[in-house]
Every structure is written in structure tokens, then in C-alpha cells.
Write a structure and sequence with these properties.
It is built from one helix and 15 strands; from the N terminus they run αβββββββββββββββ. It has one helix at 2-22, and strands at 33-43, 47-48, 55-57, 60-70, 75-81, 84-90, 93-101, 104-110, 116-133, 139-142, 145-157, 162-172, 174-180, 185-191, 195-204. The strands form two sheets. Strands 1-4-5-8-9-11-12-15 form an eight-stranded antiparallel β-barrel.
Length: 205
Amino acid sequence: MKKIIIPFVLILLLSFSVQAQDAPSNDSEFNTWQARFRVASVIPSPGDNLEGADVDISTTVIPEVDFTYFFTKHWAAELILATTKHEVEVEGLDLGHVWLLPPTLNVQYHFYSGDFKPYVGAGVNYTIFYGEDAGDVVGMDYENSVGFSFQAGIDYNLNDKWFLNLDVKQLLLSTDVTVNAGEAIIPVEVDINPLIIGLGIGVKL
């Protein structure tokens, strides 16, 4: 699914950006603030260094909110807020669940082509792990971590105030996990690296 969606979005962005180069624009006219509400699917791609054991982290669907501030018509900064709960297993062993709170700040460049406004962005996130449940083991401890974010999306204007949004983000996210199995304490480095695909509506403030 990732191999299909990401190239599709990149092709759309490229085609719109080429059109936008020929489209007249007035850089002095733009809304400073906008907000979006999306329904997003969070798809982890986990890996670890626990002797090749397969870590399985569940996919979830969550609400997501972001606020964007435009410095110019093309350059903006977006703060993304959401939280998500994931079930965790290793080789059939239930490791319970954990909540993730990954506030993410991206710097974006916006293109313009009629009612379409594609954009690309990159930034950082700080992921807070909380609400751990240990499942079949004695305890689980996740270390908060800093990662990078890459983003591509498209806004489509419905009118002067409201617009639709399609957004795809890839977070480069890893964490050090300590598994208390009772008889042993096992350190595990887990690469979560979630792909986040969102669809929603936005408003210009």
C-alpha cells in the first residue's frame, strides 16, 4: 500500500508544481492562519534488534488536528497534534499496549494551481510514550524519543474559507524499550517509523 500511495502523491505534486510555475500569483495576498481536522490511519513499520524476533505493532485510525502559520504565501510552519494507541506483540507474545503522543512541527512549501494547493514539508517530532500495559510480561518501559518527519499533501479549495485536504507523512521514529519478563530484563531497540495517511477538511482563519 505504501509503495502505491507515496509515488502517486509525489506525481500529483510534481504535475501541480509545473502548472503553478506558469500561474500568476500575488504573494501579498494570503491567509496567515489555517487549521485542519483529519481522520488518519497510522501504519507502523516496526523493526528491532532482539535477535531477529518479529515485532508487531497494530495499525490504528485516529483524529488529527493541525494548525498552520504562513510566513509568506509559499512558506509556512505546521504544528500537528494527535495521540494514538497501539497493541504490541513479539512472536505471538502479548506485550500489551502503549499510547503515543507525537507532536510534530513541519516547515512547508506550498504550490498554487487554481483551486489546488499541493505542499511538501519536513520537520521534527518528539514522541511521548504513556499509558503502558504490560500484557503477558511483568513490565514494559518505553523511552521518549526525537525523530524526523517528511510530508506531502494537497489542499483543494471549496470556497474562500473551507478546503479539503489529503496528507501523507512518514515519521522516522525509534525508541529504546525495556521488557521485564520476570526472569530477565530485556532491552529492545524498536524502529516504529509510522506512515500516516490522513483525509479531512480545513478552514482559513
